[in-house]
Write a structure and sequence with these properties.
Blueprint (H helix, E strand, L loop, with lengths): L1 E2 L2 H25 L10 E7 L2 H18 L3 E7 L2 H14 L6 E5 L17 H6 L8 H4 L4 E2 L2 E2 L10 E5 H6 L9 H15 L5 E2 L5 H8 L17 H16 L2 E2 L4 H9 L4 E4 L1 H11 L7 E4 L17 E5 L6 H12 L2 H11 L26 H9 L11 H18 L4 H28 L2
Helix pairs in contact: 2-13, 8-9, 9-15, 15-16
């Protein structure tokens, strides 16, 4: 694995083209008899984090032992934004890019504006009867568009409510909490008795609005990729958070102040997936080991979903790859092979999106940080309830409008949730109409 500079990138692109042009001569020189063995193919895998490539390098070593492929993989780590930019530039140039790339969820939209540049993995997944074995809201929904699957995610980002059981027990807060109405009652009492807050809500990002809206089966988009910000569920969520901040909750502190508040019990819980409640909390609050418990989200209504999903990075195969079939085979294999996926769980405590993997007892063992709670069993139960959701080519524009025009004004001023989301919906649709007209004019040569 190596890190690539801009100069290295240009050299690599030039070398790839030269190798392609020289290939015919090499075959002629060797002759039809095949006296000289052809050089082993090397697939290029671009990523932006070595924590992501750690398990995939281990997986490829296992793949080589079991499948004995006729190729190697070179893993390159590039800065986050630079990597995604280079993938776009290289595919537009038609040469010099990777065969496989990690694509972070918030970047995916830019690659499906126009003709998608990734291989559709759905046919292979269906042919091998694997699609039903995946928790698709985390495994495929983030990288799907128009019925096609352009990437696979291994991170089962099922959201749970994690709380400081020691703080809540001292304040006599009754858990588990079954409904959001019950949550409000307990949060009001907790704030009145302690001056602290049972939970906080961010006013400058979309995370809590998204999780609590998706929990009700809605979100930013419908199946056609157009924004659905003004659904009753979306308005209900923002109105709930607005009232909470006015009466019994607080705005999320920024930076390290957030973890200071969690450490002191001034904010006693958080909503989120494992990279938040397990990853960030364990990294930033190691001394709170054993003081955390988890449960499913409180329900909005009886029988409703009690979780959501948030975040993720998918592995995609590029259509410009000369070795797309080989790349596709490895990507599907590593996401549907328990032994490969366990490398990531052992390294990052990342629960997998492959359902059969939960037969491995390591995924559901007691975890000391969570007071020996069997967190994996909760994650597995939550995974079955994550509602389906839809991505869109307009994800960045609509998410930006939602935060800037709806979430922040509604939660920091007197503007109503309904009015704020209506404004965000109008702005989002205006952007989409403008972009659609621009693309149409470009195609017409106007």
């Amino acid at each position: 694995m190596s890190r690539m500079t801009r100069r290295d990138f240009l050299k690599r692109a030039t070398g790839t083209i030269a190798l392609a042009l020289g290939g015919a001569g090499l075959v002629s020189a060797c002759g039809a008899e095949g006296r000289a063995a052809a050089p082993k193919k090397t697939l290029q895998f671009w990523a932006f984090s070595d924590t992501r490539t750690f398990w995939q390098q281990k997986a490829f070593e296992l793949y080589k032992k079991e499948r004995q492929p006729d190729f190697d993989i070179n893993f390159l780590i590039l800065p986050y934004q630079q990597m995604h930019d280079k993938v776009m530039v290289a595919t537009q140039a038609g040469a010099g890019g990777p065969d496989i790339a990690d694509i972070e969820i918030s970047q995916f939209a830019r690659f499906i504006k126009g003709q998608p540049i990734f291989v559709d993995l759905r046919p292979k997944l269906e042919r091998e009867h694997l699609l039903d074995k995946l928790y698709t809201p985390s495994a495929t929904d983030p990288w799907s568009w128009s019925g096609r699957i352009y990437g696979l995610g291994n991170e089962l980002n099922a959201c749970l409510w994690s709380y400081r059981w020691d703080v809540l027990e001292k304040a006599k807060v009754k858990v588990p909490i079954e409904t959001w109405d019950e949550f409000v009652d307990q949060a009001e009492k907790f704030h009145k008795d302690t001056g602290s807050y049972l939970v906080d809500f961010p006013t400058q990002d979309w995370s809590s609005w998204w999780m609590m809206t998706l929990q009700q089966g809605k979100g930013f988009f419908g199946p056609n990729g157009l924004p659905t910000l003004t659904t009753p569920e979306g308005i209900r969520t923002l109105a709930f958070q607005k009232q909470a901040l006015e009466e019994w909750s607080t705005q999320r502190p920024s930076g390290q102040a957030y973890y200071v508040a969690l450490s002191a019990g001034k904010i006693a819980s958080l909503l989120g997936p494992s990279w938040a409640f397990s990853g960030f909390v364990q990294q930033n609050l190691p001394k709170s080991k054993g003081k955390w418990h988890l449960q499913l989200f409180p329900a909005w209504k009886s029988g409703g979903a009690r979780t959501a999903t948030w975040g993720g990075t998918g592995v995609s195969v590029l259509t410009t790859s000369p070795h797309a079939k080989e790349a596709e085979s490895f990507v599907v294999w590593e996401h549907t092979t328990t032994r490969a996926l366990m490398f990531d769980f052992e390294h990052r405590q990342t629960w997998p999106t492959y359902k059969p993997a939960f037969q491995d007892p390591r995924l559901t063992e007691p975890i000391a940080f969570f007071d020996n709670q069997r967190v994996g069993k909760l994650v597995q139960a939550a995974a079955e309830e994550i509602p389906k959701w839809y991505n869109s080519p307009y994800w960045p524009e609509v998410v930006d409008a939602t935060v800037r025009v709806a979430v922040t004004p509604a939660l920091t001023s007197s503007e109503s949730a309904k009015s704020a989301l209506e404004n965000a919906q109008r702005e989002s649709m205006g952007i989409i109409r403008f972009e659609t007209a621009r693309v149409r004019d470009e195609r017409r040569g106007v």
